[in-house]
Amino acid sequence: MRWTRSSSRNSVSPAVRIGELPSGPLGTISDVSGVTVGHCTLADGPVQTGVTMVLPHPGDAGDLFMHKVPAGAAVINGFGKSTGLMQVQELGVLESPIALTNTFAVGTVATALIRAAVAAQPGIGRQLPTLNPLVFECNDGYLNDLQAFAVTEAHALQALADAKAEFAQGAVGAGRGMSCFGLKGGIGSASRLARTPVGAFTVGALVLANFGRPAALTLAGRRIGPALVQRLAERNDAAERGSIILLVATDAPLDARQLRRVAVRAGAGLARTGSDYGHGSGDIALAFSTATTVPQNSAGRLQHAALLHESLLDPLFAATAEATEQAIVNALFAAVSVTGRDGHRRLALNELAPDWLALMQAAA
């Protein structure tokens, strides 16, 4: 564990370095080759929201429909309004980009994904099966006026078009209006390398962080939350509300069942930051592998990749926990303070506690 003063939004040297496993060159989910991320951010007075898209491989929405990737999901606490999750759990594949947005925009963003896929593959819903759009949400209603229904299909398509390997973190895209431990939350990402006896694999995590009781915040094992509560207008016993979406990508050859096991380990990283998965917190994890694709056409040839043996999964589990914890920490340090609906304001960690290093040392 290392602590530094670097806290750039796109820094590969995070302010607080979690664990000992090495990172990839970008230090984000895009270290898994082919994975890209795009944002559309809405920041206008009471409207503080947006859309974030995660694409598992370089093709557009239609290509992903025709060439799916294996995936597995784990519902840690089901206080959420996602769409598409049930079919992923049943069939074990992704066939659309993964969209993140606010609670009231799920339907709009799902429609945008369907339109994009139909534009690329006109047979969808006619000669071809229908699309399963995967959209996850968190409630950003403290900072964002949900009743403005500000997110449009055009915003979702803008986020899709913006997808690239190097992307911003913090109060951007779907993370614009999110809160975390009573502070400004949002988008965070990290990567770790997992070394196994049959080779090294990359594990990348991306989170939409909108959860946590202020008093519970823990950075690299140091519980600094109680010190922050004294600076916040928050009750020390406030209930945990909000949600977090935990996305994990890997280039390791895993099937859907194994990927669900990986997704479960994202919960370990979440817990290390101080979450106890409270009643009002929707905590959902999804893991996917880019090592192989599954063709839509039944006449298409399946790629045969030798799956990792179950006994070799522990390094991937450890990498998932570390990358997830790091991604949450990165979301906190990358965020900027935001004022939104009815003058509500969330302070960034760096603004509320520029002395965070001293707080960590005092909590030792």
Automatic annotation (TrEMBL):
Family to which the UniProt record says this protein belongs: Belongs to the peptidase S58 family.
Transmembrane helix as UniProt keyword: no
Superkingdom as given in the UniProt entry: Bacteria
Gene Ontology molecular functions: aminopeptidase activity
Species: Rhodoferax koreensis
Keyword presence, rRNA-binding: no
Key words, A-Z: Aminopeptidase, Hydrolase, Protease
Transmembrane stretches, start-end: none
Protein name: Aminopeptidase
Pfam entry (one): Peptidase_S58
